Amino acid sequence: QTYKPLQGKKVLVTAGGTLERIDPVRYITNDSSGKMGYALAEEAHRMGAEVTLVTAPTALKFPSGVQVVEVQSTEDMLQAVVSRLEEMDIIFKAAAVADYRPAVQAAQKIKKSGDELVIKLVKNPDILQTIGERKTTQFIVGFAAETNDVDKYAMDKLIRKNCDLLVANDVTEAGAGFGVDTNVVRVFDRNGLVEALPMQSKSNVARRLLQLAAERIKGDN
Ligand code: PMT
C-alpha cells in the first residue's frame, strides 16, 4: 500500500472495556469487544503511523506491527495513556471506560451470606478529560456511546473533555456500537456535525476517522 498519510506520526488507541475487580473471582466491566479500537490501530498502522494500542481484556488477536499495552482497570489505562501523552500526535479513545469501581477490592473471595449484597462504587478518573486538560499539540478523538439525544450528549462531551473530534454511536441502532463488525457514527467538531457515516465495517469507519485526523493535523502544522 502506498497511501501513507500518517507516515512519521505517533498514534495511540485505547480499546475494550476496562475491568474493575470486586474480589479475586469477580469484576464489573462495560460492553466492548474492542473491535472499533483494534480496527483503528490496524488501519493507522497501514496508513504509516507508529501505533500504540492500549487495550483492556478482549477476545481479539493483537494486530501485527502495533505496540500493545495490556491493562485492566481504568486507573491502569489512565497511567498507560498519560505516561505516553507527550510523545503522541493523535489519540483515539475508543475504549468503554468504567465510570465507577468498587470502593474496596476484597483480597479474598466474598462468601455468599445474606439475601442482599451491597457493593459501594466510587468514581473513576476520566481519562479523556484528563488528557483533554493536559494536551498541547496532540489531536484527540473521543467517542461517545449513547442511547438517546446522541447529538446533544456528543457535543457536550466534546466541549467538556476538550476533544478535537468526537465520534458518536447510537448503541441502540442495529449494526452500530459494541460487539458487531459494523458501526454507524456521527462525527462532531467544535462547530457541530462534520460527517455522518452510514453503516459500514469498523475498518472503513476507522479509515475515514484516521483520514479526518490526518487532514486536520496537516492543516495545523
Ligand atoms: O469495542 P466495540 O465492541 O467495537 O464497540 C465500540 C464502542 C461502542 C465501545 C466504541 O465505538 C465507543 O463508543 N467507545 C466509547 C464508549 C464510551 O465509554 O463512551 P462514554 O460516552 O461512556 O465515554 C465518552 C468518552 O470518554 C470515550 O472516549 C471514553 O473512552 C472516555 N472516558 C469515559 C469515562 C472515563 N472514566 N474515562 C474516559 O476516558
Automatic annotation (TrEMBL):
UniProt-listed GO biological process terms: coenzyme A biosynthetic process; pantothenate catabolic process
Entire protein: shown range: 182 to 402 of 402
Positions contributing to CTP binding: D99, K109, P125, D126, I127, L128, F143, K157, K161
Catalyses which reaction(s): N-[(R)-4-phosphopantothenoyl]-L-cysteine + H(+) = (R)-4'-phosphopantetheine + CO2; (R)-4'-phosphopantothenate + L-cysteine + CTP = N-[(R)-4-phosphopantothenoyl]-L-cysteine + CMP + diphosphate + H(+)
Domain DNA/pantothenate metabolism flavoprotein C-terminal positions: 6-214
Cofactor note: Binds 1 FMN per subunit.
UniProtKB keywords: Decarboxylase, Flavoprotein, FMN, Ligase, Lyase, Magnesium, Metal-binding, Multifunctional enzyme
Described function: Catalyzes two sequential steps in the biosynthesis of coenzyme A. In the first step cysteine is conjugated to 4'-phosphopantothenate to form 4-phosphopantothenoylcysteine. In the second step the latter compound is decarboxylated to form 4'-phosphopantotheine.
GO cellular component term, pick one: phosphopantothenoylcysteine decarboxylase complex
Pathway noted in the entry: Cofactor biosynthesis; coenzyme A biosynthesis; CoA from (R)-pantothenate: step 3/5; Cofactor biosynthesis; coenzyme A biosynthesis; CoA from (R)-pantothenate: step 2/5
Family as reported in the entry's similarity comment: In the N-terminal section; belongs to the HFCD (homo-oligomeric flavin containing Cys decarboxylase) superfamily.
Entry annotated with the keyword Magnesium: yes
Protein name as catalogued: Coenzyme A biosynthesis bifunctional protein CoaBC
GO molecular function: FMN binding; metal ion binding; phosphopantothenate--cysteine ligase activity; phosphopantothenoylcysteine decarboxylase activity
Taxonomic source organism: Paenibacillus albiflavus
Annotated region described as Phosphopantothenate--cysteine ligase, given as residue ranges: 11-221
Cofactor section: FMN; Mg(2+)
Known EC number: 4.1.1.36, 6.3.2.5
Encoding gene per record: coaBC
